[in-house]
Every structure is written in C-alpha cells, then in structure tokens.
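Today's session is about reading a structure prediction critically. Students often jump straight to the picture, but the first step is always the sequence itself: look for stretches that repeat, for charged clusters, for runs of hydrophobic residues. Only then move on to the predicted structure, which in these notes is written as discrete structure tokens rather than atom positions. Here is the chain we will use throughout the hour.
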Amino acid sequence: MPAGGSVLKAKTFFSLFWAFFVISAVTIGGSYAIVPIMASRLARRGWMEEQGFYDLFALAQAVPGPTTLTTAVFVGQQLLGLAGAAAAFLGIMLPPVVSIILVSLLYGAVAGNPLVQGFLQGSYGTVLGLVAALLVRMLRARKWRIHEVALSLLCFAALLLFRSWALPIVIATVILVRLGALAWKS
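Below is the predicted structure for this chain, in token form.
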C-alpha cells in the first residue's frame, strides 16, 4: 500500500486485465475460493484496500449473476472506469472459457486415470479451506453486537435442525435483523 494509505489506480487496461487473468487462471474452486485471493492481490498491488474490496464483493452478491464476475467488473470499473470493467471481465472470463474447451476435449481420454481421480478428490479439501478463510476474514472485519451473534447462532441451529424450512428461516432472520437495526437506530 502506498504511503498514507492512499490507493493507486491501475496503470493500464492490460495491467488490470493481466491481474484478473492470472487470478482466474490459477484459482480452483469458484467464487468463494477466488474472492480472498482477489482481495489480497489487489491490496498487495496497492490498487484497493481490502475493506473497499469486500464492500464491492457484498454489493456484487446482491446483483444477479456470477459473484466473481460481478465483483471483478465492479472493481475494474472503480479502478479504470468502463475500460477497467471490460479488462476485468475479459481477464476473469478468458481462463475458464479456454480451460473448459480444452478440458472437454481431453477429459474423455483420461477420465479413468487414477492420477486424475486423485487430483479431483484432493481439490475438495483446498476449496473448503479457501471458503473457511473467506468466512474468517469476513467475520473478523465486522463489528459484532451480542444480539447479532445470538441471532446468527440461532439461525444456524434452526437451519441444522429444520433443513426443509431453510427459506422461511432465512427470511425470518433477515426480517429480525432489519427490525433490530431499526430499533437500534431509534
């Protein structure tokens, strides 16, 4: 991060494209696996503070569509405007599209190979670890009040006990959170 906590703008279309291309090319596991890597890479380059990134990530979750792609486009737009949004879009999308085409051509020939099977099974643990890292970061960044902790634990327990009622439980929790926020402000 530059001196004084200021944030640098991405220098060029290509530098932003390349940053997202590399992130997308080397990350396995989807949205919740790529997000912490994206946040740390952008912060390390001094382009965006981690909290600012997670604010855009939260906004991207509220918009329909793939969260990683939406987050990348929001970040690119903030860094370089419309050109940045295009660079981030292309950088995030090219590696998986090319990979899917190549893998679909090769998979039939190697599907029964024990090394391929081992790799796929080993990937599951990595993805779980990356999702856990994202959860811990997001939990640490938030200032929790006791009633929020209690409501979160209550919702989690209810979801475990009454799985078929997941949607009503989540809706009720959201309503209770909103009512609690209104009561807290007054």
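Discussion point for the tutorial: The helical segments are 13-26, 31-44, 50-61, 67-110, 114-141, 146-161, 166-185.
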